[in-house]
Amino acid sequence: MSTETLVPYDEALARYEPVLGIETHIELGTTTKMFCGCATEFGAEPNTQVCPVCLGMPGSLPVTNRAAIEGIIKIGLALNCTIVEWCRFARKNYFYPDMPKNFQISQYDEPLCIDGYLDVEVEGETYRVEIERVHMEEDTGKSLHVGGATGRIHGADFSLVDYNRAGIPLVEIVTKPIVATGDKAPLVARAYATELRELVRALGVSDVRMEQGSMRCDVNVSLMPKGASEWGTRSETKNVNSLRSVERAVRFEIERQAGVLDAGGRVIQETRHFQENTGSTTSGRSKEEAQDYRYFPEPDLVPMAPSREWVEQLRAGQPELPAARRARVTEEWGLAEKELRDIVNAGALDLIEDTIREGADPAAARKWWMNELSRRATEQGADLAELPVTPADVARVSGLVAEGTINDKLARQVFDGVLAGEGSPDEVVEKRGLKVVSDEGQLGTVIDEVIAANPDVADKIRGGKVAAAGALVGAVMKATRGQADAGRARELIIQKLTS
Amino acid sequence: MLNEHAAHGTAAAGQARGGGAITREEVAHLARLSRLALREDELDHLATQLDDIISAVARIQEVAAEDIPPTSHALPLTNVFRTDEVRPSLAPDQALSGAPAAEEQRFRVPRILDEEA
Amino acid sequence: MTIIKKTAAELAALIASGEASAVEVAQAHLDRIAAVEGSVKAFVHVEPETTLAQARAVDDRRAAGETLGPLAGVPIAHKDVFTTSDMPTTCSSKILEGWRPPYDATVTRRLREAGLVILGKTNMDEFAMGSSTENSAYGPSHNPWDLGKIPGGSSGGSSAAVAAYEAPLATGTDTGGSIRQPAAVTGLVGMKPTYGGSSRYGLIAFASSLDTPGPLARTVLDAALLHEAFSGHDPMDSTSIDQQVPPVVEAARRADVAGLRVGVVKEFGGEGYQPGVLARFHEAVEVLESLGAKVVEVSCPHFTYALPAYYLIAPSECSSNLARFDGMRYGLRVGDDGTRSAEEVMALTRAEGFGDEVKRRIMLGTYALSSGYYDAYYGKAQQVRTLITRDFDAAFEQVDVLVSPTTPTTAFPIGERADDPMAMYLADLCTIPSNLAGNAAISVPCGLADEDSLPVGLQIMAPVLADERVYRVGAAVERALQDRWGGPLLAKAPQL
After folding, report:
1. CA A424, CA C390: separation in Å to the nearest integer?
2. Which of B89, B94, B104 to mutate to test the interface with A (most CBs of A within 10 A)?
3. What is the ipTM score, two decimals?
4. According to the model, what pLDDT value does residue B10 have?
């Protein structure tokens, strides 16, 4: 393979217009597989979730899982698709050891959902990504490549196959060509994948974890010279397994293809693989012969004709979708666009909403999660949701502050206790004795000591410089290790020195 | 994938009629697509036989069927689904009982040349 | 009369009344198998201990006071296309040699539940592709009427076993005639139920949209009893019909045709048909008329395209169904020397493991489905399938059943058509339309051809889910002809 000449991104975009296409595979989180009753738990011992059907044993037959069909219809509806009135499964025929029947049950020219769209935002601008089709299929098994130098597929001596994943319901979402994105193409691709993931997660039909492979993207990129009307030849980069990689893969392909075209070459229609470590894509082995999948209607399964009542029932049961939700919270919480984006990116939206639901004030809920707790999550290298603190805990802390039992400084100590497993916020307050001291007698003693120790400042206040009281309040706080009610302390100081 | 959906093109009907329906190269291509490692003499023999058979079945193109819907299933059933309930899987030793080779509770297969699909 | 000459209904009565035990009946058949199997070669697998254990279990269940089905204790020969968890299942293919499935087919399970005793697995054309059993990797079965002749196929081991009195009943599968044609050429009753009436779960697929399990027997009533025993809805088969099994046993007992409208298919007869076959067929039609049926000629103009449509649809489905036999998960593996790739080992395994006819059909199906040819072949064949169904629909507006010869000729000599696929395919000319349309069809014996004294079959076809109708007509013909012959046709077969 010759080394590629990459054209710097801005230069490439000055001469070429990218056209994208994204195919996303999403494993549905059904209890059982697509066509048999085997469980779908991730990470089970090899070949423990297999039966004659998903092993493709002679004589076995598929029976469609209703929950999977409901899942794909929910996705289709959320993507503004038409749910067709009648369609069939088709067999996609090709030989591969991790595919037990050597054909995949999929859909061909009759997908279940067609003609939808998903709006995504990039830098304040909305791009409408049109959806060509959403169809149902089954996943393959997984191979472990053994021997050779690298433990990778090339150069391996043999492979060991586990069919636990074979037959897990897979939804494939195919976009129409995404055009006119210019230099935003990589960001649009990433925003689409991000939004799609949020959408599917909100529907509750998949855990959409790219790192576990329950969401996988294939990215098609082609370039055409600016002003041209005919699209160029596309490459298809397979199994891009993080949102960041989606962006990088598009960017790399733009730079690479521009290099090929600039040199007077032709882009080859081929499958490429994304290399996580270098951010580049490499060519798959080009086949001597074009694939011919010989699709035909799956004779072992009868056609699907989802009734309109069923579809409407599913539509009525749809949860609030991410875009609508974002619009609502922006309004309700009075957010700026940047604030919302930060919340979403931090994965804090659910947490904040739940905290508000538990009775906290929106501003307080946002403050605790986005400042104090986000900082701690970052320190621990954990996701916010993984911290051992619940929205109910945060709501309680926020309540304690509001009612004056503790102040912000004490609240941080309460979180220390909760995160350390010392119990609920109330228990931590109790055990650590973190209540604010506002009692006149208790506070009075401390104030007297502070006045005695700071005669100069006291004189200033006596002389009418009330603003100087701040220094004494600080001293009181220090002396009470933050537990004093600062407002009350100030009142008492001024009262003692001016009346 | 998008292009592949346009792959079922129109037929080479003229070429299919009568003798000479299929070339030996096509037969060799079909053998590769079908994963059949046929010997040269087998290919020769099959080429002749397939040519006969295809020429005979090509008669089907006489039927005027412009507006006729295709039938893929004998009976007009629709919407056969099962509920999402777990049924017992095979024990791994049962699953692997017929395997020509197994290791680490997995099916052992010869090295795989390329990633696919 | 010895045990082996009795019908299944008679044996069931003997066992039910305690006059014979299931073990005795099974042993008598195992003895017969031991005596004649060397020349008939109906079975690919017989395991007497397994059989006797099943028979003992039935006797024990009866002794324990359990209420058993109407065929409890009756032995049966089981086509090797159905998975059996206690016996190998090979489809008479080298590629599955020695494979022991970890599960029972639904038909197998229902046979066991009904108390039928499985004698063994019967020979067949490899993966049910053929009309003679000559495509078996284990050699052909022989027609008990003339050991030099084919017993039909693909369920030829089943027909040979029942015609040779090795079993009173057998299972078969019918994709293009694979039950009816073997029944016809061995003088038996063979029934293809309505598609979806009997479960395909555990039936190793040849052509999924056509394959139908059905019974072979020496009498119409026996066929009906077996039909009822293993049919009915199966949630493991999406194409299974969720309805009551038609009342086939009642119909077989009723056996009357008075007032019934019978249509003779105009397109089946004439050139290419053996005169002796046509003569017996016309006699059978006269018999129906004499019994009070109203006979008319009916044209089904597209039936002549059934054969080419079938030889596109069935190979297409088979090319996909048989892709799983690749030496990776079960069965034969060839050439795995540690250097070859999976792709190469698959190709070597399949080349070695499949016989010529299977390879031919895989190649033909791959061709018919490939891009550029799909519309002209597979697509067109599916349209013809619609036209054939419409022909049936139109015909059944005029008549209650259709009749034709089951096969154009009687049993042909082993070897005669072995290397002439097109000639072989003609054996299914009359049976294929019902597979394409999915309706019910039966073959009943209607005498011996004058030329060769070999059996001829009468095919009776009824609409989808009207299976009882073909039993009713078949039983009426059987009764009238047996009166004429002075007993069952099979009594005229030479002693083995």
Report:
1. 75
2. B89
3. 0.97
4. 36
